[in-house]
Amino acid sequence: MSYCTATYRIYDDKADFHKKAESIAVGMTVGTWTELPQVKQEQMRGHLGRVESVHVHDPQSGVPGERYADVSISYPDINFTSDIPALLITVFGKISMDGRIKLLDLKLSDAFMSAYPGPKFGIQGVRDLLGVHHRPLLMSIFKAVIGYDLNGLREQFMVQALGGVDLIKDDEILFENPLTPIEQRVRVCREAAEEAKRITGKELLYAVNLTGRTSSLKEQALRAIDAGASALLFSVLPYGFDVLHELSSDPEITVPIAAHPSLAGALYPSPHYGIAASLLLGKLMRIAGADLVLFPSPYGSVVMPREENLAIQRELVSPELAIRSSFPVPSAGIHPGLVPQILSDFGTDVVVNAGGGIHGHPEGASSGGRAFLQAIDASLNGVPLAKAAESLPELKAALDIWGGRK
Ligand code: 1AE
After folding, report:
1. What's this model's pTM, rounded to 2 decimal places?
2. For the chain, which end, N or C, has fewer CB atoms within 10 Å of the first or last residue's CB respectively?
3. For a substitution probing ligand 1, which of 140, 331, 352 has the most ligand atoms within 8 Å of its CB?
4. Average of per-residue pLDDT values in the chain
5. In three state form, how does the secondary structure of the chain look?
């Protein structure tokens, strides 16, 4: 028998957590158990959920609201089809609404995982496309894209590219629009990337935003790829993990996919409800096939606690899953002064990603990109940024306005 195991944190001041666990294991599988006649029990046994463990944490203080238990329950694979919607409905469908319960983790069976090839490129594949193997990558985000025409966009692309960034991504709020339709946007940006390459000598991936109705996404992606798109950006959660899986496992989609975390704040931050960030933005994104995964960093403008960031990173690269690793992309409010901290927390397999931290450079976005690359280089060589900045004017200007790690 093959099982997938879910771990939950359940808060309750009085509950008998063992009973609660049994009621979930039965209720989310066969419905009733003890009332069934013996012969029916035998028929149903293979479908019955199994409580694996119940660890109760009784607070010393007796303060109301702090008593919880971590509960693990295994669900027979035979009960559900091998897709993430069926998995989530089984392990956290109805019970996600039943009191203070948070889904912390999922251990998936080999049988389930066999339907999931994972990221097509992963960290190594993205590095191979760029020819950059020994340093963190640098990604720049278009800022102020709404209301711009193709010339305006090209201009913005060019200044970012000339700064030497490895990837440029659309802002996730850029949808299909008459000024910059996706194919034309891709063509213009691809030409700009080629022009920039003649100057910088560097490869560059442009992640264009896939948007619109689910039924049109694949066709839109193929049009973008035909026009020369070298990567895709996709806001996974508003659509669902299954849509990412469909795209990432499609043999015709031949470019890396960057997963944007839009909407994640509705699901992970509460200690009492939702889905843990490491599962939502880590394990499930990787299983569904994201090559790069963005999430709010602990340092910038939209803050996620550091332990949660590191837990996401662990899930994105853990050898426990026999699929390619996904690139962690801690994001939001990132500026060059934060680079040493990012490298110290994440190592070199990380994408440093910035919008405002590049475009807000006092000498423009090209200098912004250069300041980041200088900060990456200094950090890799163990040189304090303030010291490196003495001979690097772009980095100096960035540190003057944003400072170092607060
Ligand atoms: C967590 C997502 C970050 C993001 O999408 C974004 O646009 C960040 O922009 P900046 O770097 O904060 O300007």
Report:
1. 0.96
2. C
3. 331
4. 95
5. CCEEEEEEEEECCCCCHHHHHHHHHHHCCCCCCCCCCHHHHHHHHHHCCEEEEEEEECCCCCCCCCCEEEEEEEEEHHHCCCCHHHHHHHHHCHHHHCCCEEEEEEECCHHHHCCCCCCCCHHHHHHHHHCCCCCCEEEEECCCCCCCCHHHHHHHHHHHHHCCCCEEECCCCCCCCCCCCHHHHHHHHHHHHHHHHHHHCCCCEEEEECCCCHHHHHHHHHHHHHCCCCEEEEEHHHHCHHHHHHHHCCCCCCCCEEEECCCHHHCCCCCCCEECHHHHHHHHHHHHCCCEEEEECCCCCCCCCHHHHHHHHHHHHCCCCCCCCCEEEEECCCCHHHHHHHHHHHCCCCEEEECHHHHCCCCCHHHHHHHHHHHHHHHHCCCCHHHHHCCCHHHHHHHHHHCCCC
